[in-house]
Design brief:
Elements lengths: L3 E3 L6 E2 L3 H6 L3 E5 L2 E6 L3 H10 L1 E5 L4 E6 L3 H8 L12 E7 L5 E11 L2 E6 L4 H11 L6 E4 L4 E7 L3 H8 L5 H5 L6 E6 L2 E6 L8 E7 L3 H12 L4 E3 L2 H10 L41 H9 L5 E7 L10 E3 L8 E8 L6 E7 L9 E6 L2 E8 L8
Parallel strand pairs: 1-3, 2-4, 5-15
Antiparallel strand pairs: 3-4, 5-11, 6-9, 6-10, 7-8, 8-9, 11-14, 12-13, 13-14, 16-19, 16-21, 17-18, 17-20, 18-19, 20-21
Length: 385
């Protein structure tokens, strides 16, 4: 079977699961320097399967960076805006790496695998930059930064039946650790006879697991999960479904809701900035971007990230202008937008000026020359029960 490509680049890297995607007839697209599956069949069917049962995702394009050594935690406290020293082994933390001016270089998930071993997971397109920055910022600390992306594959199982599927494939001795795992936690386990680092995180708004394995073992793991999950409603799902799922869950995507022109405060994610980090003597702990972020926290934002619910059928898309009825000058811009398969109406996220950011505010979005009615709503749009 030949692969179907949609905007792929000959220079794109191939996932360790590329042949699996081709065999399943996936439409492939260029994403973050990788050729990845956009869809296998119907975007809506894949989205709905994740909400109702489970979806199987290839996330091998993400970057995995190990930071290890006696001062690994201290190095990360200096490099990132979060307090990584406070993360206990076996737990994870959502955080960001910022420039000196406080702008977001990438949003990250950091797993503490042991006292002196952390795994930093970066977005695909930003992974080389994050690796370079971590390496530079670790200078002077007894810590080593190692790019492990080339030898690591990442498979995610997301949906209400994810635990049933993954636990069913887990070796008996490891079942309690996986079955009872808390959200934003991780542990080593044998899944389908393959050594994995299993994490209970995700990007869909559903329960789910992410399985980090040696790249050479990824195809066998993928096939095992697919075989075990298919009778329970699991389907392989591509980037399109992942995007609509994360948007319903109100989760930001770098390059859309986050970029190097924004601070965490502008994105409504100031909670990840830990200005209360202190050193061993109780003094404020310096970290890259601290001074700029302290100043930004004290100032009023020029724009606010909000949710938008469409009153009609035409969806807003990234880059569309947000306006106020009766006015021609835009007061905001859409960052992401889709017709919501779960909710049945268009949804979007947008940055708007503070005066139109209150819930219930009636706005319009310029959808290819036609002004469509939307209303400002709270995020997320969807929360699992």
């Amino acid at each position: 079977m030949t692969d179907t490509t949609e905007g792929t680049d000959a220079q794109d890297r191939l996932s360790p699961l590329h042949d699996e995607h081709v065999a399943l007839g996936a439409a492939l697209t260029s994403f973050g320097g990788w050729q990845m599956p956009l869809r296998y069949g119907s975007d809506i069917a894949e989205h709905t399967a994740v909400r109702a049962a489970a979806g199987l995702f290839d996330l091998s394009h993400m970057g995995e960076i190990e930071v290890s050594g006696p001062q690994a935690a201290a190095a990360l406290d200096h490099a990132l805006v979060g307090n990584l020293t406070a993360v206990t082994p076996g737990r994870a933390r959502y955080t960001m790496i910022c420039a000196e001016d406080g702008s977001v270089l990438d949003d990250l998930v950091v797993y503490r695998k042991a006292d002196d071993v952390f795994m930093v997971v970066a977005n695909a397109g930003n992974a080389p930059l994050v690796t370079r920055e971590l390496d530079a910022r670790a200078e002077g600390f007894d810590a080593t930064v190692t790019d492990q992306a080339a030898e690591t594959a990442l498979v995610a199982v997301q949906g209400p039946r994810a635990a049933e599927i993954v636990v069913g494939l887990t070796a008996a001795d490891d079942v309690p650790a996986v079955r009872d795992m808390k959200y934003y936690a991780g542990a080593p386990a044998s899944v389908a006879g393959i050594d994995a680092f299993v994490a209970r995180t995700g990007y869909t708004g559903e329960d789910g697991f992410e399985l980090f394995v040696d790249a050479a073992q990824a195809p066998a793991l993928w096939r095992a999960v697919l075989a075990a999950g298919t009778p329970l409603g699991l389907v392989p799902a591509g980037l399109s479904a992942r995007d609509s799922l994360r948007l319903e869950a109100g989760m930001p995507l770098y390059g859309h809701e986050l970029d190097a022109t924004l601070t965490p405060y502008a994105a409504g994610l100031g909670r990840v900035v830990k200005l209360d980090k202190t050193d061993a003597d109780g003094a404020p702990l310096p970290f890259v971007g601290r001074a700029a972020l302290e100043a930004r926290k004290a100032s009023d934002p020029a724009r606010v990230l909000v949710g938008l619910r469409g009153a009609g059928r035409r969806p807003a898309r990234a880059g569309y202008d947000v306006l106020v009825p009766g006015m021609e000058f835009p007061l905001g811009r859409v960052t992401s937008g889709v017709p919501s398969p779960t909710l049945g109406y268009p949804i979007a996220m947008a940055y708007v000026t503070p005066e139109i950011s209150a819930e219930g505010t009636q706005v319009e979005v310029d959808v290819r020359g036609r002004r469509e009615p939307f209303v400002v709503v709270a995020l997320p749009f969807y929360t699992r029960t």
